[in-house]
Amino acid sequence: MEHIAALLLIVGCSGNMAECRELPAPTPVYETFEECEAERPVSMRELESEAPRVMATCVYVDPALVYDDAVLEWDVTDDGKLTATLEPEPVTSFAVARNEHGRPASTLMK
């Protein structure tokens, strides 16, 4: 399995920036952040016909992060900049194990 160091996020917005949506990046993942940064302008040019305003950013991927449990959060700031982070998904529930082997729970806690 390859190591993923960066994700390329491309967003297309209306002319007044009131509505924005993610656009499919030609190559969404990179083994180095520098590769992502080098490809960013090329990918933006490929998608410039998809929306009046096209923005892109490379998002650092923490190697300790479990990708299945991550959420890409992005926003376009009031001054028109695209910001994004890859965050661990918040834990909303958990499972409790049960002892069904007949041993008292007190012996399991030692």
Please tell me about this protein's structure.
It contains two helices and six strands. The chain is α+β, with helices and mostly antiparallel strands. The strands form two sheets. Strands 1, 2, 3 and 4 form a four-stranded antiparallel β-sheet that branches. The longest helix is centred in the middle third of the chain and has 14 residues, at 33-46. The chain is globular.
Which structural class do you get from the secondary structure elements? alpha+beta
Give the overall form: globular
Q: Which consecutive residue ranges, at least 5 long each, have pLDDT under 50?
A: none
Mean pLDDT: 82
* Tally of separate helices: 2
Q: How much beta, percentage-wise?
A: 25-35%
Main sheet attributes: strand count, strand direction, barrel closure: 4 strands, antiparallel
Task: Specify Rg, calculated over alpha carbons.
Answer: 21 Å
Q: What gap, in angstroms, lies between the N and C termini?
A: 39 Å
Which properties best describe this structure?
globular; 4-stranded antiparallel sheet; two-stranded antiparallel sheet; 110 residues; 2 helices
